[in-house]
Structures are given as structure tokens and as C-alpha cells.
Amino acid sequence: MTTKNELISAVADQAGSTKGAAEKFLDALGVVVTTELKRGGEITLPGVGKLTVGRREAREGRNLHTGEKIQIAARNVAKFKASKPLSDAIA
User: What SUPFAM superfamilies does the annotation carry (predicted)?
Assistant: First the structure.
């Protein structure tokens, strides 16, 4: 699935629900995940994995076009760790 509409259709079909209800669910999930990660928390999606916040420290990089050294600022990043059932299923 590469589009939101494809995901909505798949969720609606799997849950035996309407596309409208599936879209509301996915939109609400996005808000809940964003809010929790902004607070520094973590989200566990049973059977899928865990989303957490990690810290990427400042570092030196290079401009690929000019080769010039640039400074890359520190920032928080979302990290995902797949659950064991998911990892086993795709292995």
C-alpha cells in the first residue's frame, strides 16, 4: 500500500467497517501518536511494534554537490522497533 486511500480501504475491509470510520480512526491514531511522541513518551502497537523518540546529536556532514563541510544540527527523531511477531512474519 502506497497511498492513504489504499490503507483506509484495507483497514475498512479487514475490520468490516466503512471507509469513513477507518479514515477517522487513522487520523485519530496519527494525532495520538504525534501528541505522545512530542511529550517524549512511547507508543506500542500490539503485533506491530513500538514507536519512541530518539536523539540524533549534532554532527558534521558534506554538501554532496560542492563537497563543502556543513554542520548538521542536533534533533529528535522518531524510532521504530518491530515486534517479534512482525519480525518473524516477514523473515
Answer: IHF-like DNA-binding proteins (SSF47729)
